[in-house]
Amino acid sequence: MNQDYIEPLPQIDELDEKILRLITKNARIPFLEVARECGVSGAAIHQRVQRLLNLGVISGSEFVVNPAKLGYNTCAYMGVYLEKAKFHTQVAEALRKIPEIVECHYTTGQYAIFVKIQTKTNKHLKKLIDEELQEIEGIARTETFISLEMDFKRQVAIK
Amino acid sequence: MNQDYIEPLPQIDELDEKILRLITKNARIPFLEVARECGVSGAAIHQRVQRLLNLGVISGSEFVVNPAKLGYNTCAYMGVYLEKAKFHTQVAEALRKIPEIVECHYTTGQYAIFVKIQTKTNKHLKKLIDEELQEIEGIARTETFISLEMDFKRQVAIK
DNA sequence: TGTGAAATCATGATGTA
DNA sequence: TACATCATGATTTCACA
C-alpha cells in the first residue's frame, strides 16, 4: 500500500540531468558552453531547455538576492494557528499581501499554516506580528522562531 | 535602544533597484532589454550587475527546478532538539551531508536547528528520519510538519 | 560611469537519421 | 522525435573616453 499521490513524471534522460545540473547553478551560463560540456550542439541545449520549461521541470530563472545586503537582517519562521480550519484560504490571501512574507505553506501538525518572513530588524518583525498578522481575521495565534544564521540553502539534488 | 546588529549597506540607487527587479524575476533576460527599459547602455547594465555581484547583493543566478517533476513530492519542515547546545556545528555538518535537506538554520525558540526537507514520498521522509536523522550524534529528537501545499514563494521585495 | 566595436552567442529554418 | 548544421541578428565584453 502506498498512500502517497505521485504526479506523473516527465521522461528525463541523462543529458537532461547534466543540463539541469549546470543551469540550476548558473542561469546565465551560455548554452554553447553547456553544449560543449555535453558534447552536443547549442541548438540541442536550447531545445532541451525549452522542453524542460514546457514540462514544468524548471519554472524559470532568477538572480538570487542576499536580503541582508538590502537591509533585511531578520529571517524568521512562523507557525499560524487558525480559529477555524475553513479560514485557510482567506488567511493565506491576507498573508500574500504582506511583502515581508516570502513563503507560505499549508501544513499538517500543530500549525495550519507555516510561513517564512524577512524583515529589516527584530523590531520590524515584532511590529509586523503585532500590527499586521494578529489583525488578520481568522488567525488565532502565532509562534515564531527567528533564524540566527542560515547554515545552508540549496535546490533539490539532480540525481 | 536598538538591539539589532545591522550590517553596513551598499549604496543602491534607483537604477540598481530597477535592474534588480528585472533580473531577479528572469535571470536570462538580455541585458540589452534591461538597458532599454532603463534608458542606459547595455554595458552599463553589465557593469552594474557585476558590481552587485561583487558587493554580494546578488549571489548568483539559477534556473528554478520544480521538485515534484523530479519525483520529490513531499516537502517538510523539521525542528531539531539537541542533547547539548554545543553539538550545534557537528549536527549541522551531518545535516549538510544529507542531500534531501535543502535548507538549514540555527534558530531561537524551542528548536536549536530548523531544516527544510524534500523527499520523494512520505514514506521516504519517514525512512530518512528513522534511519538517518535519529542516528546523528547530538540530535535528541525532532518535530516534523509536512507541507500539504505551497501557497506561494518569492524573494524579498526590492523597495 | 558610460560608449562603441569586435567577439561571442541565441535562435529559427532546414535536412537527416 | 531528437539532433546537427548553418545563417542572421542580438548580445556580451573589453578597451578607451
UniProtKB/TrEMBL annotation, chains A, B:
InterPro entries (alphabetical): AsnC-type_HTH_dom, Dimeric_a/b-barrel, Tscrpt_reg_AsnC-like, Tscrpt_reg_AsnC/Lrp_C, WH-like_DNA-bd_sf, WH_DNA-bd_sf
Record's keyword terms, sorted: DNA-binding, Transcription, Transcription regulation
Residue span(s) of domain HTH asnC-type: 12-73
Any single GO CC term annotated in Swiss-Prot or TrEMBL for this entry: cytosol
DNA-binding listed as a keyword: yes
PROSITE patterns: HTH_ASNC_2
One of the Pfam families matching this protein, by short name: AsnC_trans_reg
PANTHER family, per database record: LEUCINE-RESPONSIVE REGULATORY PROTEIN (PTHR30154), TRANSCRIPTIONAL REGULATOR AZLB (PTHR30154:SF34)
Protein name: Lrp/AsnC family transcriptional regulator for asnA, asnC and gidA
Native organism taxonomy: Bacteria, Pseudomonadati, Bacteroidota, Bacteroidia, Marinilabiliales
